[in-house]
Amino acid sequence: MTMTTKPRPATAVASPIANSLTAGRLPTSAPWVILGTAVAVAAAVFGVFALAGGTGFDWGGALLVGALLYVPAIWLFSTLVEGRRRAMDRLVTALVTAAFVLAVIPLISLTITVVTFGLSRFDAEFFTYSMRNVTGEGGGALHAIVGTLLMTGTAALISIPIGLLTSVYLVEYGRGRLAQGITFLVDVMTGIPSIVAGLFAYALFAIFLGPGVRLGIAGAVSLAVLMIPVVVRSSEEMLRLVPNELREAAYALGVPKWLTIVKIVLPTSIAGITTGVMLAIARVIGETAPLLIAAGFTASMNYNLFEGRMQSLPVFVYTQYANQGNPPEAYLDRAWAAALTLILIVMALNLIARLVARYFAPKFGR
User: Where is the major localization of this protein (predicted)?
Assistant: First the structure.
């Protein structure tokens, strides 16, 4: 007796699910290849124009046009291979990267220019001599460096306590119309032109000492007027980031509010507050108009903020460029060297601020 078996039904093979998120992908090197091709095409076009016109090759234009060609090219290839979703992601990434590069290029160009032209007078004489009795070559900016440090330091001593205490009041105590009025005034002061601060300081001291007075302390007051709103706004935002649970835990242990602010709130936000203070100093250390009005300028050394005119690095750069003598190259070299010195001072202040913030951060037990 023979047994017959029925054939088993064929198992249906599941077809792969089409998913736009896991579709084809461009190779990792594809964006760089597309970018290189776009730059090469732009370079070839600019090379043809350079040969036809008999002019030099424009590398900057070729790179810019190549970057502009890259954006639609990467979107097109990504759309054909990866789909619209990833193509849109690559398009936005390309636009963000292009915006970042465009923002960095002027900074790099400015730094290279200042360093290139400023190093010619970056010598010992520049940092040890003033411009007293100097009409041509030689001389230095020691009086301007000392004036900048004195006026900026005094402005910081005035504005940091006022700004920090104001922000503490607004965050911890301020309620009602008084706090709203202070906030409104701080917002208004943030947008005032710097020359208005210089006119205010000049008018303030002219009331007591007579018209035409120019003092270093007047320049410091004008810079303090510009610093206070920046310190208040930055410190206020940092204090608001401190979790309320830390305050409530201190209150539950019976710690007074003022001690909670001193021991808990301020140490927790000290890194952000220090960064805000440094931003305020960097914002005013390069101001020229208020110091030109309130402190004036001089070619001699002056260590006394309350007597006589006082020079500063921004005003020194302005006067050297605006009042060029013979030879004019000596004045321009001093101006570039002073600009480089000002940049280095701001850089040093930022490095010091980072070290202070790192040392006093809560993770170090402070």
Answer: membrane
